[in-house]
Specification:
Layout (H helix, E strand, L loop, with lengths): L3 H15 L4 E6 L20 E7 L2 E6 L3 E5 L5 E6 L8 E7 L3 E6 L6 E5 L23 H8 L6 H5 L10 H11 L12 H20 L39 E5 L2 E5 L6
Antiparallel strand pairs: 1-6, 2-3, 3-4, 4-8, 5-7, 6-7, 9-10
Helix pairs in contact: 1-5, 2-5, 4-5
The structure holds a DNA duplex (16 and 16 nucleotides).
Length: about 270
DNA sequence: AAAGACACCTGTCCGC
DNA sequence: TGCGGACAGGTGTCTT
């Protein structure tokens, strides 16, 4: 499910409700997520949440006693509800706050994770070697060209690799390649500086617009108040439901790296 | 080092 | 109505 815009939307929804709140209890109803939820999480009962941030698709929660690292996997979402509200079928974790609200982690496929660290989450081994954030200056055409120069893999695979740049999943990879007119199968090292510049700009604008609209809801994703994201209406090629908005020809679907790629064979060369 | 395949899990949809 | 198969927003790890 969640790519960078959905994780950012989740973060922004949580922040005002979690900062400076004290945890009164933590219920782990289903510890079998992508990795087992570590027992140390339970030591955070009575902890006060100091701050929240995002790195790649991870949500980082800093408390006065230790830190949580969350990942939403393919189908995860987080909601804030009154504590007495019953949980849904796939609610795996419930964190109750002193103010009567509780944070619920819902994840039907259980590809997500909750990890614990008492040091800086940015130094965690899953996080420390990641590529730059796409919406920062650090992600620019010179950087991408240097990454592409030695790579024969398709450009779509490369921009989805978190060691190149973080946060771009299947939807936004397809959409940004469409906006920049690049065929997803093109070998990364064969793309000119000018076209990479268009790609960098497309990535930034598509992610920014998606964040503004609260992300993309296809099935599971909801914002923390239960609302869907509205970017689905802006998708040009992903999902293949309509013709190419540019030329009217049918959108093609191919498989790359075991994932569906949607693109227009006449507009993307 | 880099590219590709596979694994993890549940739900939904489509064709027969 | 039921059943099998394909497919779904991610990514670490293993194999080539």
């Amino acid at each position: 499910m969640p790519e960078l815009p959905e994780v950012e939307t989740t973060l922004r929804g949580l922040q005002p409700h979690l900062i400076n709140r004290t945890i009164t209890s933590i219920q782990i109803k289903q510890p079998k997520l992508r990795w087992p939820v570590p027992a140390e999480i339970l030591t955070l009962q009575q902890a006060t949440i100091n701050s929240l941030s995002r790195r790649a698709k991870y949500i980082l929660m800093y408390t006065d006693q230790g830190n949580m690292i969350w990942h939403l996997g393919m189908s995860g979402s987080m909601r804030l509800l009154a504590d007495q509200q019953p949980g849904s079928k796939h609610e795996h974790i419930k964190i109750t706050l002193h103010d009567g609200f509780s944070l619920r982690y819902i994840d039907p496929r259980r590809f997500g994770a909750l990890l614990y660290t008492d040091s800086d989450p940015l130094c965690h081994k899953l996080i420390c070697d990641l590529g730059p954030e796409p919406l920062t200056e650090e992600f620019n055409t010179e950087y991408l060209q240097q990454k592409c120069a030695t790579r024969s893999s398709p450009i779509k695979t490369l921009i989805m690799d978190s060691h190149t740049v973080v946060g771009i999943g299947n939807i936004y990879a397809c959409e940004s390649l469409f906006l920049s007119g690049i065929n997803p199968r093109t070998k990364a090292c064969k793309i000119s500086f000018h076209r990479l510049e268009k790609l960098v700009n497309s990535i930034k604008s598509v992610l920014q617009q998606a964040i503004q609209l609260g992300g993309t809801t296809l099935q599971d994703f909801t914002q923390t108040d239960g609302q869907p994201g509205y970017f689905a209406q802006k998708l040009n090629v992903y999902g293949n439901k309509t013709a190419c908005p540019n030329c009217g020809k049918p959108v093609s679907r191919i498989i790359q790296a075991q994932r569906s790629t949607f693109y227009c064979t006449s507009c993307q060369k």
